[in-house]
Amino acid sequence: MANVNAVSSTHWSSIREAGSLYGLKFLWLMHRIFGRWMVSFMLLPTVIYFLLFRPQTRRSSYAFLLAHYRYFPEYWAKKPNYINVARHFWEFAEAVVDKLMSWAIDISADEFYIQDPEYLERLMSDKRGRLIIGSHFGNLEYCRGFVHRYRDKVINILIHDKHSENYNALMTQLNAESRVNIFQVSDFDIPTMLRIKAKIDAGEWMFIAGDRSPPSGSRRTADVQFMGKTAALPIGPYMLAKGLGCPVELIFSCYDYSSKKEKIRVELMSFTDQVVLDRKNREQELQAYAQRYALALEKQCSRTPYQWFNFYDFWGEATAK
To answer: 20 to 30 A Cα–Cα from 260, which one of 41, 128, 147, 186?
Structure first.
């Protein structure tokens, strides 16, 4: 296990949020007046801005694409360059807009490709609450599209990111009646745990990301293998699942912007019916859970690398040099 004693300049939580609340509102207004084509056109300055004035973000994008090229060479025709980085930023900007639109407009079920629809139906008919581990791959907000079909389901999303206040504020304004609730937590203290447990006992779903370590120095991580290199992933989701005693699922949702025929792909899969930790082998078992998650995330990235939206030093290579 690796202890996180401080938030370094390469940690994702130290990277400030790009974009003002007024800027996000302006994009939404342009979408309402002109449609999606105008918003996509207006994203070009954003892509240029990230390429020219966000060197850390640019380096992180290139480092990931290069790692993907080395680990999955069959995907690439040639070694990625900064044109590929620009496409990476473009898909990120498109995904941010789609997140906003997913809160402002109803998403039809016809827009989705569900990997295992029978499994989803079984989960929706199950009255038990459950913890669902997602990621910063693709667009998790698209979950509203199929939750819309099941009005009795309430989705809660746990986030650590204090820098996303603009985005979260606008989402709430766009759809105050949404059955998706966002909770910003800095630590899983006793009051927070009791609040989450009450929601799980009421049959609600609780979403948490499993690919970013929280900024709190007291939280530990586990070293896993991801795309051939060692990365530190949080053990918080599995500790939380242990305390809640509920079933755990994994969810991945993304959209291939290079294909106009591609639908929003959603994969919801079983992780474990209950996280069980032996006191003597606790660290090894937590590492095993984190590694299983890493393998599932790696499989998703192998098919659509431009949907990876962790623009920071994910492998900690900058501090290791």
So the answer is: 147
